[in-house]
Each structure stands twice: as structure tokens, then as C-alpha cells.
Amino acid sequence: MLGSLRSIVQEVNAARDLPAVLEIIVRRVREVMHTRVCSVYLRDKQSGHYVLMATRGLNQDAVGQVHLAPGEGLVGNVVTREEPINLEQAEAHPAYQYFPSTGEERFSAFLGTPIIHHRNVLGVLVVQQAEKRRFDEGEEAFLVTLSAQLAGVIAHAEATGALAVIGQQRREAKFTGIAASPGVAIGRVHIVAPQANLATVPYSCCMDVEAELELFHEALTSAREEIREVGERLKDDLNREERALFDAYVAMLDDSSLAVEVCDRIRQQVSAPRAWAEVMLEHVRRFEAMSDSYFRDRAADVRDLGARVLMHLRQQQQSRRDYPENTILIGEELTAAVLAEVPREKLIGAVSVKGSANSHVAIIARAMGLPAVMGAQDLPYETIDGADIVVDGYRGELHVHPGAELRRRYDSIVAEERELARNLDHMASLPGETADGHRVRLWVNTGLMADVVRSLERGAEGVGLYRTEVPFLLRDRFPSEEEQREIYREQLQAFAPRPVTMRTLDIGGDKALTYFPIEETNPFLGWRGIRVTLDHPEIFLAQVRAMMKASVGLDNLRIMLPMISGLGELEAARKLLERAHRELVEEGYDIPMPPLGIMIEVPSAVYQVRELAEHSDFISVGSNDLTQYLLAVDRNNSRVANIYHALHPAVLRALQEIVRAGHAANTKVGICGELAGDPGGALLLVAMGYDVLSMNATNLPRVKATLRAVRKADTEKLLQQVLQMQCPEEIEETVRAYLKRIGLKALLQPAGGQ
Ligand code: PEP
Ligand code: MG
Q1: What is the CB neighbour count within 10 angstroms for residue 171?
Q2: How does residue 7 score in pLDDT terms, banded at 50, 70 and 90?
Q3: Is the dihedral of CA 319, 324, 326, 331 positive or negative?
Q4: d(C-alpha 65, C-alpha 371), whole Å
Q5: Beta-carbon-side half-sphere exposure of residue 413 (alpha carbons within 13 Å)
Q6: pTM above 0.70?
């Protein structure tokens, strides 16, 4: 059964559109389960009814005609119950409804399973049999498993189908994801080339057939040259058989019948990557089905060759394109390095199919003031290259081919945003304090050089977190000690005499260096942050030496350690730091030992704050990681993004305990997670007594305006109120309502004329 399941899912994944997907499902399921009938019903978005979309075994005329409301008939009952219905004799069931057009009176046994995607019943998969008999447990389990696996594919195919129509008619289409960086961007899609995997090239049309043919031939030529070159280079190291493989590759690319097949498809307006993938996958399947094991093994070679050409196709596509004005970057999994590739003045928005609001790329987007939506799982992104799109980073919505009315609404939001930014301009020169004079240090988080200018313009009083991994992420090798010194010097100099808190390298998790790959099953619980650098003292020492050398004459450096889970790590790091300092002094540098602080972002550290604080010069809470670890919710996983709550009661209690224990040890306590940059979060943190709130420069004016509008005593009342609550959504709503009540609604989200 597992084999059949896999092969059905694979076939469905490679299908070109929704009708093809459904056709494969009904044909293959009927075959594998040996039933007389297999049908799929899907929900019609407009009517909410479930419509028979494909069948094998029922009359074809009924397709598109039979539809049932939720609760109506057996299919409608599967929908409302959200579980399978398995009947020996369908017509004996009280909910049974007879549709003469289907000819189903011939069938007695009925098994229907819901197809559920993100808690919504997309459709129902039904099998039927002529005789009176119950489908057995194994059959039921098979259909349930298959429905669960197919749900995502069907949702994607539905969306793609909608867009194929839209592609021709330019109809507006809406997709949802996770609101990851506030703001609205109206621009043009630029797709970041995904990996070269033949099986995941979605169907897309090409408008200019001649250009697409040319692209294909160029890619073929480059792939051929590359293979020849590699073969030539390795010829002395290869045996005869291996050399023959290279010749076979080239021969296959020279084979005109292959090219003809692909060109035929391109002439039918199929994009070159998709046409190539379809043809090559057919060849792969043909090889896989061969009885001779030698030929079966060649399937992998064909797949490899296919992937190579696909890569060239992607490269050609990429090199032919300039980034348009108002680029909205969309990719399967965006990274900081990819964002940095687009000239800043052209980039206005970002969308990632994978990831979540607390992924590092989302944090960088927020720091850049770039509206972003993450986790847009159902967006058939490859089919919309070059299309107009609206990115709504407040609601996590995307609108492809926006119409005039929608544009007007979003234009007014953009205008409102500009107005708000102008109104907040004067905040830069005002102190960060509450209406009753309680002073709070409002610092910034930095990483990119562009953050420095923005931070200074907005009146940053210091840097609470300089993410040193960002310059590491943007290179193709570790920066040398001298290169690091130069980068750090720029930061320290720009802010001097204000303090700059430099965090030692925090890689691992979703911050992967291409040149230092870390392959792990559970990266967020693995080799991350201080764990990596303590295991590699040469990396740690070079970095802290560079930091200290950079601070000569400025004396505004503070060093902070990420991911500390116990005193041992702090002590080991301190020893290394002291050694580096001693050696620099011996070399003649005149530098004081910088203050050393730690991040509290691992639950074990929460329970040791007192001891850790006694051994540190300052502490700063990394609420992004602390939330993920306390709630056991991967911050990078869009599937569980709805249960990631920085205002969860457990997180609030931990935050309060940290500041209490830190102050008991006479240590200043700050926070540099995203919560500090959220106006509502900032209110609660001030009430708890946090000394420093560090946030991205984009949020700084909003948070300052919020604090200046409230009295500390009132924030304390609000805190007491929310600490009584058990439900994170209720806490979030209470804080929002409070901000609205005190007249700060505009800081939350522009209304856009609504
Ligand atoms: C945090 O975890 O809150 C933090 C500030 O660090 P990062 O987001 O870089 O992991
Ligand atoms: Mg962290």
C-alpha cells in the first residue's frame, strides 16, 4: 500500500493542472483499491456547495452537475462531521440522497473521507462498490492517509488553476500567509529561482514563444558545454564506464527528438522549465519501469541530467532579467543574502512560501522597513513572475493583478503610512520616557549598514543588539579578523559615544552560512550560537579580538553572548574573552575590558537568572527564541505560526521573573526580541521594569510615541489585568483595545478608508 500511496502522490504532484490532478486521483485510487467507483467532490468557493468534479464509475454527465450543501446527503455529512463515513448499504442511511444523473443506484457500499487543508474541508473523496459490504479498516485507513496527503496538492492546484485563468483575463486573486513585516507595497513580482528539482516545477505559461525557445536552446548549449568540460577535466580520474556516462549525457542532449518534444510543448505556450521537466520526467519513468536493472539505474542519470539543464534554464532566465522598479521579491524560502542582492532602491516588498513572522529573514525585512508576507503556502508563485501584486504586510494578504478599486484602497493606506511617518519625525529629538517622566532606554537592533543611518536619523540612544552574523551571512567565507575589525569599527564609530552591544556569532537554526553548513534534524535544538563558537575557539577569539581592536579610542563596546543555557558557558566564554583582551594589551593595544552580558533566551537560563546576572555586567532577553522554546513552537515553521504568541501568559510570567531576578542581583535588564518593538508589548515591558528596550529602527518612533502617551502607573494596571488572563488571544486583544482607547489606533494599522 505504501508504494501505491507514494506513486499516486508523486504522479499527482507532477500533474499540470487541477483537472489533471483529479483525473489521476480517481483513476489510480479506483485501480489500487479495486473499487467500481472513485469520485472527488470539491467545495465551490462561491456557493459553499460540494460539487462532483471528477469520477470513474459514475456517469460522466453528472460531473459539474451534482452538488451538495454541507450536511446534505452522505457527502455533505462527511463534510460536517469532518470524518469518514463507511457504509455497507448507502441507500439505507437516513442522509442518503439519490441523484439519477449519476447512475449510482447500482452501488451499495460507500466510503467517503474528507479532504482537509488548514482545518478547512476542501472536498470529499469517495469510493463505492456494487456489493453490500463494509470497506475494511485497512482500506479506510488508506483513503484517509491519501486524502491527508492530497489536500495540500489540491489546494495548490486550485490556486494555480485560478491563476491560469487570471493569467489570461487578469482577474484579481487573493492569497493569504502570515503578516511578517508591516506596511503595504504595490509592485511587480520577481521570482527568486528555486532549486533545480524536476518534480517541483509548477505549470506556467509563456507569452513569448520565440523568446522561450531561444532560452531553451541557450540552456541546452550551456549544459552541453559544461558536461563536456567536466568530462574533459576528469578524464584521467575516470574509468571507461564512467567516461561513457559523460558521452551518454552529451548524446542525449544532442538527441534532436528530445529537443523536438520540448519545443512542441513550448509552442503550446508551456514555459521552457516546465516543458523540459515534463519531458524529462516521462523519460525517467520509462527508465524506472524497465525490467533490466542496468537501465533502471540509468533513471537517476536522466534525472540528474534533467536537473542540470533546468539549472541552466533558471540561470539564463535570471541573467536576462533586470530587477524592475518596485520589485516584490518572491521565493520558496527567502534568505537575508537574497534580499541583499536586489538594489535597495528597487526593492519594496518580500514574500516567502516557507517561514514565519519570526524567521530571521522576516526580522531583517522589518528592520529594512520592507512589507513582507511569509508562509504563503498556497501561492503558486512560479506562475506569477512579472505580475502586478499588492503585499499587505499588516494582514498577511497578497493580491495578484489588483483591480482599480483595490488599488485605490491600498493607495490610501500607503498615503496614511507616509502621513504617520511624517507625524512621527519629531520623535527623534525627544527623550524616551513615559508621560509621568519614567525614563526607558530605547535602543536599536542592527545588522545591515543601512540600519545605522536609519537608526541615527530616528534618534537611537544606543545599540542593544548588533547581529554580527549578518555580515557573515552575506559572504562566501568567514571574514578575516581584519575584515571584521573594519566592519565593527564602522558600527562603533557611527554610534559613539553611545553604547553598541555586539553579539558574538549566532549561527545555526535558520541562520545557515553557505560555507559552513550544519546539517541537523532539529537545528533549533542543535548546534547554535554560543555552542558553535565555544566548540570553535578560533572563530570566537578572532571575533572578540576584532571587536576589541575596533573599539580603540571609542570605549563604547559591550559584548553579548547568545543562547546561554548555564553558568558553565558564560564562564568558558569569559575566559576566552579575558585571554584575548590580555593578549591585545600585551600587543600594545590600549583598551579596557568591555562589559560582558548574556542573552536570556533559553528556558534553563530563566531559572538561573539570579546566578547568571551576578556573573554578568548586563542581561538582555531574546524573546523571539524564548517564546519558541517556552511554547515548543518552531519560530520558522508556518504550520504552527498561529500558536506562536509572544504575549502568551507563560511568556509574560517568564519575562516578569527575569526582570525581578536580574534586578535582585543589581544587574540592568534589557530586551532585544521583537516584542520590544511592538507598541503593546513595550507597554507591558515598561510596566515590568525593563531598563532597555531594543528594537529595529523602523519601530522606534512608534514605540517612543506610545510610551510618551502613557503614565507608568497605567501600564502597571494594564499588566495586572492581562496577567489574570489565560488566553493569549484575549491578552493581545486587551492590549490592542487599550492602545485604541488612548488614541493610538493609527500606530497599529492604517485603515485605508475602511
Ligand atoms: C531573540 O531570540 O529574541 C533575539 C533577539 O535573537 P535572534 O532573533 O537573532 O535569534
Ligand atoms: Mg535569539
Answers
A1: 13
A2: confident
A3: negative
A4: 43
A5: 25
A6: yes
